[in-house]
Design goal:
Helix content of chain B: 25-40%
Strand content of chain B: 15-25%
Order of helices and strands of chain A: HHHHHHHHHHHEHEEHEHEEEHEHEHHHH
Oligomer: heterodimer
Largest sheet of chain A: 9 strands, mixed
Helix content of chain A: 55-70%
Shape of chain A: elongated
Radius of gyration of chain B: 19 Å
Structural class of chain A: alpha+beta
Number of strands of chain A: 9
Order of helices and strands of chain B: EEEHEHEHHHEHEHEEHH
Largest sheet of chain B: 6 strands, mixed
Chain lengths: 643, 257
């Protein structure tokens, strides 16, 4: 048997121990490879989407690498710890440390090569599917599978170097110990509880402070607050696992009336050992799960944003033109052509808006013809309006505007043409983009509209009117390629200000929406995959920990069974030991995310008046279900091992 | 009155090669008796102890513990039976590493959901008896082997079982600690009239008992009762052991008793 064969056998014959670990690393390679496939895709030529895709994927890749490095390092050292007795025997038999390091290096590299190869294999097999998903998300025309050396090289380079770093790093662990320490095995179980009361209380206080700040923010939102909250919660969580929870358990254990009660004795004592052993892992899992819950929650909340977005922008493509606009005909023609080119059916409603001065506003108002509004209403399938002569309805410029307008009847006179009108109320929908209309707009009856013959004071007849073109396209999400050059002019000339220097205004909610949607979908896709990798890794770690402690646990349960613990009670004890390991990080992550959602909600309300309460509830429930089923799966494996 | 009665107990381990671990073994143990079971490795001592512990079922034969037939009990009742009637002492102590000495001792009582005041009272009395009062708050990895085994004995005694089953209780101890543990067991046996069945390799350990039962290849081989002096009893145990170590064929001709 050569040295290489020895290392190979060590890996292959420990397959059961390595299985979960290997699975998690294969999965992270897979995800990394898929991201790379997308990053290097030749068909993503659209500069904008490429930017988002590249940026998002790049961040995801970096997170993935950092996390994988951490996960690999942590599990490798745990593996080596579990095998320290074996290494002790080898050293005792005369293996020198250099050989031992070489063996560990070889073993790690075997694992590395296997997981990289298998990961890339599956990554490539699934990449067609992933590219299809991405295509749907970005509403791209085609995103075919391609073959290029770039993603392969990147993945192989990154992961092999990762494994080389790990194998050098983990052999340091062995180098520091001498044979006798290794032979005795390594166990944190035989250590004293090391928590300090000060740190314990500090941890609780930090968490409390973070939560209170969140609640405070609900009333008085400050953006910089989020950084303080994150730091407080981060440190607080760490201390919570390393000290606070042990301190709390210690307090309970001092009260014998609580503590000396059927299985609590075993459960609490074992629980505090397991928590001490896994504090750092719990911390990581909590942070990771919180981020996962949050990203998924935020992205899910986007679905409610879609509905609201549609409500705010019912007209698919809107073009308004002032009297001095020389491009009016050219632009409208072009828009219609582009719509036809895209194969989209549309209805075009043209509004000729007249301007007059309102007597009680002492300001200009836009007057819109009832029949024109109704023809748009027919296209949009919204209720028609019916106005009598002399009546008018205000059109709100935005949803907030709608809530702000007084609704009492009001008498006014259109001064230039001396037409008295009575404002009967507010139209209950927003129909025109808020930026298109500077002044108050009123809908009046066709007869009254015809009576307006006089121009604004100081203007000609032509100058006191403007034209709106409202396109209704039922497939409004597909209009993203229509009017892209007009949109570019608008964004370039307006920037983020509300002042429109052009003589026309153009807005295409479909295009804007597709940008927002692409960004969010990408976040979702990236977030979900990273979260899946992280959760799988965390799960594999719990499994591994259980597996290494199995022999010891088995013996302990055997003693308990002899002492007369019934099978039912044994399951209860197992539950009490496993539940904290699964649900403590999960529980804290839930509390964290609930508070983060509250903060985000406060933020969202400012931003878009969207409520994400329902979505976040769904996300939390979904994660709970996943976690519970995972718990039952592991518990089932554990119990079959124990019996 | 016999507290334990075995009749024609046979245990066969099924497998590719069936293995006869215990073959038609019958004996009785009186209440308050301190019995040692001796025999060479592979003679079925541990199997026998497991059968009496009711965690293993005999293939055939009858058994009575304290007037009850454990073979008739369902597994749940069997657990409760063990919880109340039996106490265990193991070679490697098997204390739960997470619990302190005190907690390890009260464990059987907490499983039985006794009131805390009763538990405290009992644990204090036992700790005093076993000289563990000073280390009650220590964890198992902080105490010596002798202290650990005394803790384990405390755990076996605390719920006042009818029988204590000890599997090589001195196997992992140095001679001084072993002697302490044996004297302790013997004291407990005399003072509280607790029945103890101890499996051992060690003739010194066996010499503390009232009676030594020898088994070989799962069958009854011999038994001897103690006499006034431990030295002579020890000598007689050694004699039987030397016979046990020999060839089976020679034994039939010079069988004692």
């Amino acid at each position: 048997m050569t040295f290489q064969q020895f290392a190979y056998h060590n890996v292959v014959r420990n397959a059961r121990v390595y299985a979960a670990f290997l699975l998690a690393s294969i999965f992270s390679v897979l995800v990394f490879f898929v991201y790379s496939m997308l990053m290097f895709h030749p068909n993503i030529e659209d500069q904008f989407i490429q930017n988002i895709a590249f940026g998002g994927m790049f961040i995801a890749q970096v997170i993935l690498i950092i996390f994988t490095l951490f996960f690999l390092f942590y599990s490798m050292s745990a593996f080596l710890q579990a095998r320290s007795q074996e290494f002790g025997v080898l050293l005792n038999l005369g293996m020198d440390k250099r050989q031992l390091n070489r063996m560990i290096f070889l073993e790690t590299m075997i694992l590395g090569v296997i997981s990289t190869a298998v990961g890339i294999f599956f990554g490539f097999s699934f990449s067609k599917f992933f590219l299809m998903v991405i295509r749907e998300m970005f509403l791209l025309d085609s995103l075919p599978l391609y073959l290029s050396w770039k993603p392969f090289t990147l993945t192989i380079l990154v992961f092999l170097s990762l494994y080389i770093i790990i194998s050098f790093g983990s052999s340091i662990f062995i180098r520091k110990k001498n044979i006798i320490q290794l032979l005795k095995g390594y166990s944190k179980q035989n250590e004293h509880e090391t928590y300090s009361k000060g740190r314990a209380i500090l941890g609780l206080l930090l968490l409390l402070a973070a939560y209170s700040l969140v609640i405070f923010s609900l009333f008085n939102l400050k953006f910089y607050m989020s950084f303080i909250i994150i730091i407080l919660a981060f440190v607080g969580t760490y201390l919570f696992y390393t000290d606070s929870i042990l301190y709390l358990l210690g307090v309970i254990r001092k009260h014998k009336n609580l503590y000396w009660h059927s299985f609590r004795l075993i459960a609490f004592a074992e629980g505090s050992i397991k928590i001490r052993e896994n504090a750092k892992m719990f911390f990581i899992v909590t942070v990771v799960s919180t981020i996962a819950f949050l990203s998924v929650g935020v992205v899910t909340s986007f679905t409610s944003f879609t509905a609201q977005y549609r409500e705010m922008n019912p007209v698919s493509i809107f073009y308004s033109s002032n009297w001095d606009n020389p491009f009016e005909e050219e632009h409208v023609m072009k828009l219609s052509q582009e719509l036809q080119k895209e194969g989209l059916s549309y209805e075009l409603v043209k509004f000729t808006v007249k301007k007059q001065t309102s007597s009680n506003l002492r300001n200009q108002v836009n007057l819109i013809k009832e029949s024109e509004v109704n023809s748009l209403a027919v296209a949009l399938k919204i209720p028609l309006i019916d106005l009598k002569n002399g009546e008018a309805i205000i059109i709100p410029n935005s949803l907030e505007d709608y809530k702000g307008i007084r609704t009492e009847d009001e008498q006014t006179v259109l001064e230039e043409s001396s037409i008295p009108i009575q404002i009967k109320g507010v139209y209950d929908r927003v129909i025109f983009p808020s930026l298109a209309i500077k002044d108050r707009s009123l809908i009046i009856s066709d007869e009254d509209y015809e009576l307006i013959t006089e121009p604004l004071y100081g203007y000609g007849l032509r100058e006191s009117s403007l034209t709106f073109y409202a396109y209704h396209v039922s497939e409004w999400l597909r209009t993203k390629d229509v009017g892209t050059d007009l949109d570019r002019i608008m964004t370039q000339s307006m920037g983020t200000s509300n002042v429109n220097p052009n003589s026309f205004y153009f807005s295409n909610p479909g295009l804007n929406y597709s940008i927002i949607q692409a960004t969010f979908s990408l976040l979702l896709f990236t977030g979900l995959l990273v979260a899946a990798v992280l959760l799988l890794a965390a799960g594999s770690f719990v499994y591994f920990k259980l597996y290494t402690d199995l022999e010891r646990d088995k013996k302990q349960y055997d003693v308990l069974r002899r002492m007369g613990v019934t099978d039912k009670e044994l399951v209860k004890i197992v539950n009490r030991q496993l539940i904290p390991q699964f649900f403590l990080p999960w529980g804290l992550a839930m509390v964290h995310s609930t508070f983060s959602f509250m903060f985000l909600q406060a933020f969202w309300v400012d931003l878009a008046a969207v409520s994400i309460a329902m979505e976040m509830l769904l996300v939390l429930i979904a994660f709970t279900i996943i976690q519970v089923s995972y718990f039952f799966l592991i518990r089932w494996r554990y119990i079959t091992h124990i019996y | 009155m016999s507290i334990l009665m075995l009749e024609e107990i046979t245990k066969v381990y099924e497998g590719k090669v069936a293995h006869l671990a215990i073959n038609q073994l019958s004996f009785e143990v009186e209440k308050g008796e301190f019995l040692a079971v001796m025999g060479p490795s592979g003679s079925g001592k541990t199997t026998l102890l497991n059968l009496i512990s009711t965690i293993d079922r005999p293939t055939s034969g009858d058994m009575m513990i304290n007037g009850l037939d454990p073979l008739l009990l369902k597994s749940n009742d069997l657990s409760l039976f063990r919880r109340r009637q039996l106490g265990f002492v193991f070679q490697d102590f098997n204390l739960l590493p997470a619990l302190t000495v005190e907690e390890n001792m009260v464990l059987p009582l907490t499983l039985d959901e006794q009131p805390v005041s009763v538990m405290k009272q009992k644990v204090n009395r036992i700790a005093e008896q076993l000289d563990l009062t000073s280390i009650l708050e220590k964890r198992p990895f902080e105490i010596s082997g002798g202290q650990a085994q005394r803790t384990a004995i405390g755990r076996a005694l605390i719920h006042e079982p009818s029988i204590i089953l000890a599997d090589e209780p001195t196997g992992n101890l140095d001679s001084k600690a072993a002697r302490d543990v044996l004297e302790l067991l013997s004291n407990v046996n005399k003072k509280s009239n607790t029945t103890i069945i101890m499996v051992t390799h060690d003739p010194i350990a066996a010499s503390y008992c009232d009676r030594v039962l020898f088994i070989k290849d799962g069958e009854y081989f011999n038994e001897i009762y103690k006499d006034d002096r431990r030295q002579t009893f020890f000598q007689r145990i050694l004699n039987v052991l030397s016979l046990l170590g020999g060839n089976v064929n020679d034994l039939s001709t010079i069988r004692l008793s």
